[in-house]
Amino acid sequence: MDTVKPVRDALDVINGKWKLPIIISVGVGNERFSDIQESIPGITPKAMAKELKDLEQHKLIQRIVTNDYPVKITYRWTPYANTLIPIINALKEWEIKHRQEVFKK
């Protein structure tokens, strides 16, 4: 069974410096652009806008436009994004073990 290609394709969706932090930020309840940006140190508005569009294309984040005055734009996890929860938790657990192994902390 070919493992490399599906893993590489999956990483293409969530890889990069900002995608997982954005997914996690939205997942914990940050819905507004400014709240997401404030929760991720160092991300620029331009980078975040690009990553949000990519995540929306991959059906992980939903952009919701409310036609009030002024127009309100929020971002939410899609139900499909819930499939990432075990992956995010596994990465978190792996890093804790990795840090202990490498740095003996």
From TrEMBL:
<keyword id="KW-0238">DNA-binding</keyword>
<dbReference type="InterPro" id="IPR036388">
    <property type="entry name" value="WH-like_DNA-bd_sf"/>
</dbReference>
<dbReference type="InterPro" id="IPR002577">
    <property type="entry name" value="HTH_HxlR"/>
</dbReference>
<dbReference type="Pfam" id="PF01638">
    <property type="entry name" value="HxlR"/>
</dbReference>
<dbReference type="InterPro" id="IPR036390">
    <property type="entry name" value="WH_DNA-bd_sf"/>
</dbReference>
<protein>
    <submittedName>
        <fullName>Transcriptional regulator</fullName>
    </submittedName>
</protein>
<feature type="domain" description="HTH hxlR-type">
    <location>
        <begin position="5"/>
        <end position="103"/>
    </location>
</feature>
<keyword id="KW-0805">Transcription regulation</keyword>
<keyword id="KW-0804">Transcription</keyword>
